[in-house]
Predict the 3D structure of the following.
Amino acid sequence: MQPAPGIRKFGFKRWFERQLIESHVYLVTCFLCLILALAAFEELGSRVTGFERVMMFATIIGAAALGILSWSRYRAILFPALQLSERSTCEKCGTHARFIVIDSGREDIQETAENREGTWLKVKCAKCGHVWTMA
């Protein structure tokens, strides 16, 4: 999930907007899965037959699995986009989100107990030509 091709194609502002929309679709999906799982759990208390009970358990497990997957996708999309957004202002002239991607790559960053890959972008300000690295 490299951001550089998307930024080159759409520009940073439109790319960031698309990342926000996509991540929040996953958040809404997670919330709806939570509601579905709780509703199915509540129905277990009523008089249901054996097959209906099995279907309720399957619904709860499926909704929980999809909710967990949606939450992890939400975090995986939103947080790297926010990290790049924090560094998208030119240090020289103060122009926000107007740059050209020169180069990009990945590096290993140690976070808590996990190894996650971080993305860096070498960018050039479209206004003044200042070059900096967004990591």
Remarks:
- The first strand starts at residue 99 and ends at 111.
